[in-house]
User: What shape does this take?
Amino acid sequence: MRLTGKAALSFVLAGIACAWQAQGADEPKPKPENTVSVHLTEPVPPQKFANPPKFWIKEMADRSGNPQPMLVLHSRGGIFLDRQPTVIVREALEESLKSANLLAADADSADLVIRIYLFHFGLAEGSGLDFFGKVEFSAIVKNPKTGETAEVKASGTSIAKGAARKKNIQKNVQEDLEESLRDATRNFLRGQQLKDAVTLLSKGGEVAPVAPAKPEDKPH
Amino acid sequence: MTKRIGWLILVLALAARSATAKDVTPVFKTAEATHFTGAEGVELTPSFYDYFYAELRDELKKSKLVKDVVGEGEAVDDADAEKSVVISGTVSEYKKGSVVKSRLIGFGMRSLKMDADVTRRSDKQALCVIHVHVKVDPSWNEKTMAKFAAQEIARQMRKEFAQKK
Assistant: This one.
């Protein structure tokens, strides 16, 4: 009886160990061959402002609720980003603002300070026939002198064709993410919402202060 | 003989298709696709509308009817506003369908009806209204309907505006 009990315990422990190992084997790990670098191929030219202000991106917060923000695709050994999505979006916005001479040298010299809440970066559920890339964020633009704020939402989407070979999947996913990043950057920098926010905040206008955005405030 | 006729039809169809794609020159400077809304009682997930929005923009780019497809809420130069359109619309009906009925008697397809309005940006004048009815197998993903609906809107727009031009 004693021997049977010990054998049963060993059997259970061995089973748990095997299950643990199997789970570990399924979980994709970042390697150089399954990591993609996403960045803008060229800066997005922002819209023209009557009185061009100087912007400064103060903070980037990931509000996607994604426990693995750098894992883009789980299947086929996984596809990972080389940097955090917040870093990628910040770089895209700063490059584009800099190209139009709208980026301040530091926070103190900025006319408008931006805080960004990133809600989605990566692939979203599509038809299964293609890859659906989506980038969504919300920016709180603040005039540091008056303390007034305004919210600007932006989103970018892209559809890339599906693929069967892993090499092609990786290439298409990378292109898809770059296109959706470009689209979101453009949507923000050329959006009517940013134009209105700049006009109102430059005047020190009557913009109702808004609470920091939450994931459920996700732009539709 | 039958095989030869088949090849001939295929070659003619491909030639006609490529000629149509090449002939289209941009009619509009910009087109803004907006997120469609669902009428009361339409039970589609928010991700459906997101995906449809992305597909519609993709199809508009492919149609070559428009020089630049802008995102929702993007500002357009006043000079370009007269030659720009905004596409908005509503999903008026959605039926989930039934896999059992479809397998047994061939009915019960998943169906979607939507109306799209194409309006001129400068004066908000309605240029055309497009009615789309898509039917797919009930076992298919709802997003495939979005793909077909977007293709149909782009096809009808091409037909409408390429003729007017």
